[in-house]
Amino acid sequence: MNVQFKKGVLELCVLVVLCRRDYYGYELVHTISKNINIAEGTIYPLLRRLTKEGYFTTYLRESEEGPSRKYYQITESGQAYKEELLREWTHFVSSVNNLIQEEEVA
Amino acid sequence: MKKEQFLNQLKRSLSGIPETEKKEILYDYEEHFRSGMENGQKEEEIARSLGNPRILGKSSRIESLLAESRDGRRAVNVLRAMFASLSLGFFNAIITLPIFAGLLAGLIGLWVGAGSLAVTGVAVILTIILQPLFPAFLTLGDLNIPFLIFASIGISALGLLSLIGMWKLSQWFFKITGKYVQFNLRIVKKQEARE
């Protein structure tokens, strides 16, 4: 699939996953790469940007194994942004599906 | 690739961004390695799934410089983002750089000109005031003093106006340069995405 397109969708995926609960970096990356085939490292610059833009906050928490982990938590504006992207996505997918079905009928 | 090697390559490609930010970026990848190993993954395996550290470093670096130039709009950041885009193999550097250097030199020349005008007026007034004290060093010739005073006020005012104009012009110049650099960075990013 086109890489730019994937990057855009990746933003939505990160927002959707973090709406469920707080994740630490590796866990989040793993959850996404289980479903989507990407270079896992590209998620970190994305997380940094979305954090800078105020959509996430981060905090450190000790893990059972020892060293502390950086957790990402979605903010209110992050949730609003997710809703917006989700609307765009749904609209886009249904438009594409409509187009495909029209094609089949014809 | 081992963890050390990955982090070293990443670190090298992050040059030029603030030290604290560099540490934060490296920390995220270090933690990723640590968590992966706790989950029983091998270093090489983790590095492979993360991707090419040089490309990851470049995109972190561009994000960082762009964020800075968006927040601060400081000329220095615009210049740094510009040089970052040059190092990415920005194709028309040979054409753009001389033009940019020429415009910058022109801008500096105009600044000096505007500054000189402002200073000249002040200098003439000082000469008029100090002339009676140092008649041996300062001479006004047979020019008439009220004329000189009005002329120098005029020249200073003109100089000040030019300085204000230059300030606006410089802001505009760096804004345009920033826009142009961002435009190029978008192209570079698209090129990278295709690779």
Taking the alpha carbons of the first and last residues of chain A, their distance comes to 27 Å
Beta-strand portion of chain B reads under 5%
Approximately how much helix is present in the residues of chain A? Answer: 55-70%
Helix content of chain B: over 70%
Q: Over all CA atoms, what is the radius of gyration of chain A?
A: 16 Å
Largest sheet of chain A: 3 strands, antiparallel
Shape designation of chain B: elongated
How many helices of chain A does DSSP assign? 4
Number of helices of chain B: 7
What gap, in angstroms, lies between the N and C termini of chain B?
A: 20 Å
Architecture (CATH level 2) name of chain A: Orthogonal Bundle
Mean pLDDT of chain B: 81
- Structural class label of chain A: alpha+beta
The two chains with the largest interface, and their residue counts, are: A-B, 23 and 26 residues
What class do helices, strands and sheet pairing of chain B give?
mainly alpha
Written description of the protein model:
The complex is a heterodimer of chains A (106) and B (195). By secondary structure, chain A is of the alpha+beta class. Chain A has one domain: Arc Repressor Mutant, subunit A (Orthogonal Bundle). Chain A is built from four helices and three strands, in the order αβααββα. Chain A has a three-stranded antiparallel sheet. In chain A, β2 and β3 form a beta hairpin. Chain A is elongated, with a radius of gyration of 16 Å. The model of chain A has no long low-confidence stretch (mean pLDDT 89). Chain B is mostly helical. Chain B has two domains: 72 residues, no CATH class; 106 residues. In chain B, 82% of the residues lie in helices and 0% in strands. Chain B contains seven helices and no strands. The interface between A and B is medium-sized, with 23 and 26 residues.
